[in-house]
Amino acid sequence: MSQGQASASGVGDKEGKRVERIARHMRAIISELGLDINDPNLRETDVRVAKMYLEMFHGLEEGSEPAVTTFPNEEDYQHMVMERDIPFYSMCAHHFVPFYGKAHIAYIPEDRIIGLSKFSRILEFYARRPQLQERLTEQVVGFLESNLQPRGAMVVIEARHLCVEMRGVRKPGAQTVTSALRGAFHQRSVREEFLDLLARS
Ligand SMILES: [Zn+2]
Questions:
Q1: pTM of the complete model
Q2: Distance 193 CA to ligand 1 centre (A)
Q3: What is the dihedral of CA 60, 63, 66, 67, to 10 degrees?
Q4: Which end of the chain, N or C, is surrounded by fewer C-beta atoms within 10 Å?
Q5: So what's the pLDDT on residue 11?
């Protein structure tokens, strides 16, 4: 975060050039579609889309892992911690249209714990890039596994994919559900506790 400030002008310059280059390609697409690039509603679409891509794919800029602090488990808490219904937006790597929904993230600590607000930070980090739901699910659980070394971790993601709903087979409202788990969650009883917590209203 501090590095952004230190070299703000350099970053701005580089970013400006990238916006220009992406916008140029976007203009070519707009023309190729037979649209009038001078239409008032399209005149700045090239630049708007370029800026939007850089914002939505910002996870690519931040390095390979989200910066998240963990803490020693001083209370020796040994039960399940779950954050559920965490909303997210991502972009399908195959079609560059959104998929979005909510994630349920749980772990059982061993020696380290993590601030609850960090779950959404981790999710967003991996969501803000061209992505696959399966990979997103694995990356979040993998992050918990490698940074907390918990007794177990599990992630369930429910999402709607606009590439499924708007084109091809057209299944409006269909949800794709993925899950990934580690450690203690391989036990049926632990998974059942997860699903119990999920079912509570
Ligand atoms: Zn897709």
A1: 0.87
A2: 32
A3: -140
A4: C
A5: 62
